Amino acid sequence: MNTIIQAFGLVFAPDVLIAIFASAIYGLVVGSLPGLSATMATALLVPVTFYLSPIAAVATIITASAMAIFSGDIPGCLLRIPGTPASAAYTDEAYAMTRKGQAETALGICLWFSALGGIAGTLSLMILAPVLAEFALSFSTYENFWLAMLGLMCATLVARSSPIKAIASMLLGLLITCIGIDNPGGVARFTFGTTDLLGGIEPIPALVGVFALAEVMRALTEREPPKLEHRRLGSILKGQIELTKQYPKQQVRGNIVGIIIGVLPGAGADMAAWVSYAMSKRFSKTPEKFGTGHPEGLIEAGASNNASLASGWVPALLFGIPGDTITAIAIGVLYMKGLNPGPTLFSEQASSMYALYIIFILGNIIMIPLGIVMIRLASRVVGAPRSAVMPVIMIFCAVGAFATAGNNLFAVWCVALFGLFGFVMEKNGYPVAALVLGIVMGTMVEQSFVTSLIKSDGSVLPFFSRPVSSVLAAMTFAALLWPVFSWTMQKLRGQRVAAA
Amino acid sequence: MTPLADRISGSAIAMLGAAAFFYGSKLPPVPGQQVGPSAFPMVVGTGLLVCGALIVLGIGRHFEEVAEADVVSHSAPEEFAPLPAWRSWLALLPPALLMFYALASEPLGFLPTAAIMVLVASTAFGAKPKLSVPLALIAPFVINLIFLKLLRVPLPDGLLPFPW
User: Fold this and answer.
1) Alpha-carbon span A65 to A412, nearest angstrom
2) Which chain A residues are Cβ-neighbours of B154 within 8 angstroms?
3) What is the average pLDDT score of chain B?
4) Plot region of A384 (φ>0 → left; ψ -120 to 50 → alpha; else → beta)
5) Please, which residues 71-100 of chain B have a Cβ atom closer than 8 Å to chain A?
6) What ipTM does the predicted assembly reach?
7) What SS3 state is found at A234?
8) How many domains does chain B fold into?
9) Residues B106 and B49 in one domain
10) Same domain, B93 and B142
11) What is the pLDDT of residues A18-75, one digit of tens each?
12) Domain range enclosing B134
């Protein structure tokens, strides 16, 4: 009980409340601008979190990401352009509703079910994390190694691209972490004689490069989105309670799918929305209505992407394995703030963990009023000219990376090179999220791998003979072989259809 | 046949993997231990070599086509209307400007460097001087204010130090 009171004290400190409020507005604005993703919003926040207290720092990331995922729905509804990739799955549906003159209902669904989904995700975090923490205390380096591998494999599995390219991206990330002297032998690896590379590549400049700078680059090659006309909207929340009662199954299913996808390392809100939308259509009694402005899929997918945000923190807090690209950034901030991820976090820093839960709930509650204000102002914000926004973001990329790396200009070079690298990768179908996961987790993977091998005197047997690690190993190989299996099944089915 | 881009990127990855393996194998071992700093780069290098080869052979291409078709069917058609080819070269501008920042911010100072960057970038995005000039004057100033006063990060002064 004491810890809970302590946690409330932590959250309701003035600096934390200001941080929550400011980052909520920031998240809403960035999320609603087409081409600026929630991950980018989070990446650009990192330098700011440097100068905040630990709880305020985590609060800014939680609030900004939740708001950005919701407000990405706004231009999707009104312009048919998703504000963040997480809204792409149901942009069509929402826009069809707008064309039918139901813009306020569509926006209302996005807002209401986003908030409910966020709260459901938080509940899952509150229940799952402590249970898993108990279990995780018994893990040794072998289990940690497989867990990290499983996480990396999941990331490649859900990448919506060629699994081989995803694995290649992930391995490139791992190779990048080999640079520097932070390795088992303490020798300089891949530094090519430069002192700047001795310390290795920091994840934050790399993240800012691939997620923020590459977005600016892509925007330069794409058309400016059309202007948003000012439109009078009726009551946003009207009819949402009825919809909640009418489609309880869709909402719960969306929440559960979102939570599961969030917990899976590497798969985040965008994946959750795609899967939930497809599921909703598949199990619907009226699948023919999908795509014509039908609320069912919108409810399920909207509930799903926000639910995945909170549950993405489960593996991040327990094992330092990011549940999605946003938590990949959050892990860096957690380490920076002395909240090192691990099962002991829940016993030693219990009040901080409770504070985190409270922030999640609070963020999802204030999403409703702030979201309504944002929707009302959308025509002004979404119409902000790209030629004014993008240059400023570019400067933030430079200065932010410079500040996080301890005022070192080498970080700016890193941002530039990773931006270029991320842009080229994306253009050729290599998922950058997998690269980032590799960069974030590389050191941990290598450490657990080499320490395990040293313990076993070079034998690989203990990797498979310990009970928990054998299960994790089996799951990792299953994830590796799954694309082969699904491809074969498709081929077989295709042959049967052709033969019939 | 695998698209040309895949054959190029696949071979580049395979070569990188081979280089990582070779370079890794040359690293000095830790005395008295079988496993040292060379193990991980060699494993990763092997993986990259295999992946690169598979990409060149076009294995896994099918999954990409499915995902691409999905995205196209969910977006507005006008988003895919082709733009003139020179536009794709414009993408090189932001990293070039960042490199300019890395080189020029110490001698020139943050304010002039950032002003030049904003001016160039916003013009590239199609802004008229009516927008880009005031933006280039105001934005760096505000960013400097945020970093200096709120976050207490001193940015390079150079020729034109921040007025207070």
Assistant:
1) 24
2) 407
3) 82
4) beta
5) 71, 74-76, 78-79, 81, 83, 87-88, 90-99
6) 0.89
7) coil
8) 2
9) no
10) yes
11) 999 999 999 998 888 877 888 888 888 888 887 888 899 999 999 999 899 888 888 8
12) 87-150
